[in-house]
Write a sequence for this structure.
């Protein structure tokens, strides 16, 4: 009986310590709101202190507002980049169609990517694939380290297939924990967690990793937003189709979504709903807003997570499964879907829509079929014949990869690609 009382007493003490820890972090988050807001106001006041101005082109080729070229080092859960700060906003003029301002709001897809370190070429190849097959206007949100801004602007400005906007943003994290967030898993990858808080004027957004290749128009994935029910606010694909080779169900030391977890390399978000929702969590019985939850969640699980922000998303949607729309694996096709034989059955029927070259397979010899697709799109030049300079060279390269399991499934890579090319040729013959 005495042992039972000792154990009961210890449990009570541990519970009280846990509650104090969570409430302390929650209180810190609430207190920081005022300080972050004051930092934002102070920084905005400094913008009028004679900083150099740079003119940016608006629609119709006219000079729009003056944009100050300044790096933003502050962050607030209610902050968004002011219109005259930091982002390099460009409107691409081409021979196709009229200005984006004449498009209905739902006609434009919004695509975001985060690039740090040696990811410039990989990101540009992803953007090329997005612009190459899309028929409807795009707005690109490029989050990159300051030293990459000029290279991105120069390169994206040469992509003249369709009319599109692009905005370049700095990498921005909360001041108090900037280093911790920036180095979580891969440099800057956790920036995606803060996109709903930074882009507060954007209703919905498609985030993709840099190692993504679109084999189908972006707007086809964008239409999945209309499939969300009233409680769903984000969409991702499962991490694995086959539990026997799954990572989360075998090795994870934290909660995760569903049977095998989710992969966040392709993430479709209704950010208006994300900003409005109070999320259930395992840190307190009180549902928390997105911005209130992130830091306490990292502090609780940082010693138990392997895949950084993707693990945090798994924890969030483990406790809020009703908020997630799960799309099939052909929208996020990775080596795991073919390395031990084909296990993405919907791709077997319809082909691969989006190719995800995670673990660096676009750049090494481990999965030559994935690398062949990347090289073909990277080498293709806008305006060239798509059959002669993209599809034919790709099929030739893939024919030499059949000694691998993924190479034997490589017809799935070109199945949807052929349809995308044919659709472009039928709709806009001069884009061939």
């Amino acid at each position: 009986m005495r042992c039972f009382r000792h154990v009961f007493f210890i449990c009570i003490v541990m519970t009280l310590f846990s509650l104090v820890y969570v409430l302390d972090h929650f209180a810190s988050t609430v207190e920081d709101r005022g300080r972050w807001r004051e930092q934002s106001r102070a920084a905005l006041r400094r913008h009028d202190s004679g900083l150099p101005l740079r003119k940016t082109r608006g629609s119709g080729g006219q000079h729009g507002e003056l944009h100050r070229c300044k790096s933003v080092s502050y962050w607030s859960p209610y902050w968004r980049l002011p219109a005259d700060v930091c982002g390099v906003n460009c409107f691409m003029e081409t021979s196709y169609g009229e200005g984006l301002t004449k498009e209905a709001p739902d006609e434009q897809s919004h695509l975001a990517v985060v690039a740090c370190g040696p990811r410039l070429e990989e990101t540009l190849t992803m953007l090329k694939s997005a612009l190459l097959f899309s028929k409807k206007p795009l707005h690109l949100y490029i989050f990159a380290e300051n030293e990459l801004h000029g290279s991105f602007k120069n390169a994206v400005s040469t992509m003249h297939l369709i009319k599109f906007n692009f905005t370049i943003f700095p990498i921005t994290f909360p001041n108090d924990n900037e280093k911790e967030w920036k180095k979580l898993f891969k440099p800057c990858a956790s920036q995606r967690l803060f996109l709903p808080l930074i882009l507060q004027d954007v209703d919905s957004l498609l985030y993709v990793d840099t190692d993504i290749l679109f084999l189908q128009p972006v707007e086809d994935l964008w239409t999945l937003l209309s499939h969300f029910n009233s409680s769903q606010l984000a969409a991702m694909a499962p991490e694995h189709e086959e539990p026997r080779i799954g990572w989360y169900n075998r090795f994870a030391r934290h909660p995760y979504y569903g049977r095998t977890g989710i992969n966040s390399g392709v993430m479709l978000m209704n950010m208006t709903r994300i900003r409005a929702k109070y999320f259930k969590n395992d840190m307190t019985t009180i549902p928390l807003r997105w911005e209130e939850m992130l830091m306490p969640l990292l502090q609780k699980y940082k010693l138990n997570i392997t895949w950084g922000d993707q693990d945090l998303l798994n924890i969030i949607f483990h406790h809020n499964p009703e908020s997630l729309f799960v799309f099939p694996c052909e929208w996020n096709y990775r080596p795991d879907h073919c390395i031990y034989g084909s296990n993405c059955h919907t791709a077997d029927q319809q082909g691969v829509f989006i190719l995800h070259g995670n673990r660096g397979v676009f750049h090494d010899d481990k999965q030559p079929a994935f690398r062949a697709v990347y090289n073909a799109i990277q080498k293709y030049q806008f305006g060239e014949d798509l059959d002669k300079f993209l599809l034919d060279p790709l099929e030739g390269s893939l024919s030499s990869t059949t000694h691998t399991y993924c190479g034997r499934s490589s017809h799935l890579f070109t199945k949807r690609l052929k349809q995308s090319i044919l659709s472009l040729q039928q709709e806009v013959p001069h884009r061939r």
Summary: Confidence is low (pLDDT under 50) at residues 32-105. Residues 2-46 form the longest helix (45 residues).
